[in-house]
């Protein structure tokens, strides 16, 4: 049985064109800065967002945690939404590696406001950690794929500049947000001190994320990457997939969003569905009514060739992606 895998957009496999690019990549030793394909990827991504430099890493968790380490000191505090990936799904590394605390804000579908940030900045008492960094996530995974626009980010960026805080973007699915909002990547780049850009989700590359920032930030980030075991040698073979993804797989993300919305339309007609988060990009999160559970629902779907992820006792997540075909969509709709 060929499964329609909706567990995540990380399950994609390289297309033929991407594989050809990988096999023909020119490579060198990236730890010495001598891999021409890695260098080309870093330069390309930095230029897209109008930033000075970039560093290629194995994962988005690593790029996020490098950014936190570079932008904070021990006994500092980062501010983020309570659903943020850096808090919920990165093993508490902000504390273990960088020695910082976290202040959680109760946003809407994973998104916070400048007013919330302003109210959360600590006064300079000895017994409070120093507020030094704000982290936004675009799109917000657990928030159901909701996204920030430039106009929503700008007041947060202005507040951070006024108060002397750094601003980092966990851009795990940033291009999903951009194809929906129509915002210019360079306008995004102007607002942040650093951006983590994942290549292995909707863009379809097999491995890797980039951290973008100033030359000073990225110089320090390369040292932190090495300390985390992230220095790679002939990484050009996988970096070539990232270049191909940026050249060929951005606009097609709209197809994934359309499929997600179609799934949501069918789910909305089902009596067993309690609630569906607003579907803005390629993520569908919904709750089923008791006595049905997410475990039982996912088990039933698997028997029909559909794979999904549990997000709680009653909650299920679907994520559409490059490998989720029109035929798989029809199969999923029938199964629902």
Structural summary, described in words:
The protein contains 14 helices and 13 strands. It has 336 residues and is an alpha/beta fold. The relative contact order is 0.18. Helix 2 packs parallel to helix 11. It folds into 2 domains: 93 residues, Aspartate Aminotransferase, domain 1 (Alpha-Beta Complex), CATH 3.90.1150; 233 residues, Type I PLP-dependent aspartate aminotransferase-like (Major domain) (Aspartate Aminotransferase, domain 2). The model has no long low-confidence stretch (mean pLDDT 97). The protein has a 7-stranded mixed β-sheet, sandwiched between helices. A 4-stranded antiparallel β-sheet has the order 9-10-13-12, covered by helices on one side. A two-stranded parallel sheet has the order 1-11.
